[in-house]
Amino acid sequence: MTTDINACAEKQGTDTLRPWSELMRDLTAVDTWIVHRAIEILNDQVIKHGPKLASPQDVKDYLRLQLINEQREVFAVVFMDTQNRVIAYEPLFFGTIHQTSVYPRVIVQRAMSLNAASMILAHNHPSGSTQPSDADKQLTNRLKSLLESIDVRVLDHFIIGEEGTFSFAEHGLLF
């Protein structure tokens, strides 16, 4: 998708796309409302119809829309059923510009109450870097272990930043 977007940008006479935060800064109040409304509509369609997020790119695009404009770190979970259809997208923890506290008990309780079979973890790095910290890696493995004990699979953990999107699964970090 990024290649297609960059190709369109080149046709329009620009070399590359500007970072999301830069684009959002240049928008008028009406433009910002339109972007947020588009995200709400997309979210309603995904949640209402419960589609499968068929590919890692679908998930990346969806989570990027949800988290890229956050000014502080947000940890969210996409809860899914046995067919990998979205049950709910929930931003659960909100932190500062460089960290957030995540409470595994809350995630386990929410997974149980939604009867989730699997989930995708996600958080943003407002700094722009998508590289996982040691704390990110430890938390992911701890959550994966805890959730396995109640038969809920962690399919991936994405970090969203201006540099792009990092996938723990694609980098072999979900042991």
Automatic annotation (TrEMBL):
Protein keywords: Hydrolase, Metal-binding, Metalloprotease, Protease, Zinc
CDD domains: MPN_DUF2466 (cd08071)
NCBIfam families: radc (TIGR00608)
GO biological process: proteolysis
InterPro entries in the record: MPN, RadC_JAB, UPF0758, UPF0758_CS
Gene3D superfamilies: Cytidine Deaminase, domain 2 (3.40.140.10)
Domain MPN: 52-174
Annotated protein name in UniProt: DNA repair protein RadC
Molecular function terms from GO: metal ion binding; metallopeptidase activity
One of the Pfam families matching this protein, by short name: RadC
